[in-house]
Design brief:
By secondary structure, the chain is an alpha+beta fold. The protein contains 6 helices and 12 strands. The chain folds into 2 domains: 35-79 and 188-334 and 345-359, Elongation Factor Tu (Ef-tu), domain 3 (Beta Barrel); 81-182, Helix Hairpins (Orthogonal Bundle), CATH 1.10.287. Helix 2 (81-131) runs antiparallel to helix 3 (136-182). The chain is elongated and about 160 Å long. Residues 324-380 are annotated as: Disordered.
Length: 380
């Protein structure tokens, strides 16, 4: 009995030692070496509010939350019938102004001809008066006729200038109304994902009312916080790695693009060095746009994880922070499974897609059931 107890104790100690060694190695394997820093954060992207320039009724919204839309895709159309009527009226006014200008041009030509004739008449009257063939009254009449013709020519030119200004004003009204009519079709400014659908057909939106909110997937980044001593040693453009909680085995490459100029949260009194060390600065690590484009169907905002940054250029990334993505390889993405938005009511759902894992998704398998009340001899 004593020998068996000793043997059991030795086996238990060996198992405990092996477990402790395995745990220690696991902890050492994921330990962050010198020259690096880390922080908790989440994936974010810039939001774009697609809004109206003027009050109008919504006719159609052909997109749904979660849709991936290209640049120029129609997000919503507004009722612009009143503006279209005003545009037709402005176009008619523009045509009228152009006809008025044509008449003014003809009138200027007529008045110019009359002024030229009056000038020649005055010259002939002066010559005849010098020879004594006409009275001085004839010269005065010719001089008055010339002045009248010159005044009429100036008036005609003034009317022509007014016609030109009327055309400019009418053309401006046409351009303004045409732009307003065109603004009745709300389009995506760039390739993005519909985050919120904020209105429905039939609703009247005020000026600046939002029809939808888009996510600009060309700028995907993780926001996290670092203490003073770490943020002060961090260079813009420094290499970074992102490990998402949803994909813990895949390191995503990134680069530091922003360090806040001011601490985001600090103690009430900052007087000692220990208190200054507790100041935290917001940092952004941006995922390369080419990588986002490659996996754009699997990009999801709101995912939490860890961001790791390199403080020393000579430091080498540990193996657990390397992956096919960081090495620039092109793994085959797994099948895409749609992620429905969190439907908490209109405008509160969140369109989501995640980065692809480097392993296929598990396929659910059905478990055969044994029918009830079936004799044992009939079961196959």
């Amino acid at each position: 009995m004593t020998f068996k107890r000793v043997l059991i104790a030795v086996v238990l100690l060996a198992l405990l030692g092996a477990g402790a060694a395995y745990g220690w190695r696991a902890m050492q394997g994921n330990r962050l070496p010198a020259g690096f820093a880390s922080g908790n954060g989440r994936i974010e992207a810039n939001e774009i509010d697609v809004a109206t320039k003027y009050a109008a009724r919504v006719l159609t919204i052909p997109v749904e939350e979660g849709d991936l839309v290209e640049a120029g895709a129609v997000i919503a159309t507004l009722d612009t019938r009143d503006l279209e009527a005003q545009l037709r009226s402005a176009e008619a006014q523009l045509r009228q102004s152009r006809r008025t200008r044509e008449e003014s041009v003809a009138l200027v030509a007529q008045r110019a001809s009359e002024a030229d004739f009056a000038a020649k008449e005055m010259e002939r009257a002066l010559i005849l008066f010098g020879k004594g063939h006409v009275a001085e009254q004839r010269v005065d009449q010719a001089r008055n006729s010339r002045r009248t013709a010159d005044a009429a020519l100036d008036a005609a030119k003034s009317h022509l200038a007014s016609a030109d200004e009327a055309i400019t004003a009418a053309a401006g009204d046409v351009d303004r109304l045409a732009d307003l009519v065109a603004d009745g079709v709300l389009k995506a400014p760039r390739k993005s994902r519909v985050l919120y659908r904020l209105s429905e057909p039939g609703e009247v939106l005020a000026a600046g009312g939002k029809a939808a909110t888009l996510l600009d997937l060309s700028n995907v980044y993780m926001t996290f916080f670092l203490p003073t001593d770490t943020a002060g040693n961090l260079a813009l453009g420094a290499e970074a790695r992102i490990l998402l909680d949803a994909v813990p085995g895949t390191a995503i490459p990134a680069a530091i693009t922003f360090v806040a100029p001011r601490a985001q949260f600090t103690p009430k009194q900052v007087e000692t060095k220990s208190e200054r060390d507790r100041m935290m600065f917001r940092v952004k690590a941006r995922v390369p746009e080419a990588l986002v484009t490659r996996y754009i169907e699997r990009v999801k905002t709101g995912l939490t994880g860890m961001a790791y940054v390199k403080l020393d250029d000579k430091a080498v990334w540990p193996d657990w922070l390397e992956s096919t993505l960081t090495r620039g390889e092109s793994p085959s993405p797994p099948p895409i499974s749609p992620s429905p938005p969190r439907g908490e009511g209109r405008g509160e759902g969140e369109a989501q897609h995640d980065f692809a894992e480097n392993k296929p998704l598990p396929t659910p398998q059905s478990t055969p059931r044994t029918p009830r009340n079936t004799p044992a001899g009939e079961r196959s």
